[in-house]
Amino acid sequence: MNATTRRLPSGAPLPRLGRALADAWTITLRDLNHWALRPGTVIVGWLFPVMTVLMFGGLFGGAISVPGGGGYFEFLMPGMFTLTMLFGLETTMTAVTTDAARGVTDRFRSLPMSSSAVVLGRCAADMLNSVGGLAVMIGAGLLLGWSWHGGPGAALAAVGLLLLLRFALLWVGIFIGLAAGGPEAVTSVQILVWPVGFLSGVFVDPATMPAWLGAIAAWNPLSATAAAARELFGNPGHGGGSWIEQHAMLMAAGWPVLLVAVFLPLSARTFRRLKG
């Protein structure tokens, strides 16, 4: 007796997921091709954090003491890895907003493709770019004298937390880019990147700030990832007595999960509701 093959209907979840991933990969390749035509933009984006490391490590490092001892440069590098995950977010916002303003997004929406493919593809392309940028930063840190003192497993865990933060922040940028009225509106958001980066434990111990400002800095998601990365890399950290600082590892995983849970659905819904 011949066995009967049962086929899933075309509208079943698995075929829909496969089509969505295939469409997202197409969008990813589109963005990667754009970068291949303009490699200078990508290279400058990768080298800018290196310049920031040289500026803070070389100009200000000698004047900053690390709580509990240790060199400031080793304290700084995990923080700069974290800040690198924030850098370039305005590029994501601008690209999404520009596509919407030029009608590219409307064109995608008119095609027989998954409605989530555009935002997923953009996120995937930017994640690949982020991996390259983080690799450049780690290489620069090693050349300048930074090193990790834990095992390879702990170092990979630190890299994983850094990329998890980047993944979460990308969904924040995609949502803002879709919700913005045009490329000009993104400019007002771009000026917040530096305050968010500085108001954290990336460069200094939040305990050295005024109490109210230090509390805000300690609850900054960047602070949790920077503290967790320092712990996993075996680099000097600032410790801290507050609950958020004592549970940096937990918060370094919890903050990104929360951001993704909020902004991924918002991004998908905002894309579907864009006016044609």
What does this protein structure show overall?
This protein has 276 residues and is mainly α. Helix 2 (39-60) crosses helix 6 (117-143), helix 7 (152-179) runs antiparallel to helix 11 (221-233) and helix 7 (152-179) packs parallel to helix 13 (248-272). 72% of the residues lie in helices and 0% in strands. It has helices spanning 13-37, 39-60, 72-84, 89-101, 104-110, 117-143, 152-179, 183-190, 193-198, 211-218, 221-233, 243-246, 248-272. It has one domain.
Radius of gyration: 21 Å
Cα distance spanning the termini: 55 Å
Tell me which oligomeric state these chains represent. Answer: single chain
**What is the helix content?**
over 70%
Order of helices and strands: HHHHHHHHHHHHH
| Structural classification | mainly alpha
Name the overall outline: elongated
- Unreliable residue runs: 1-10
- The chain-level mean pLDDT equals 83
SS summary, helix count: 13
Beta-strand segment tally: 0
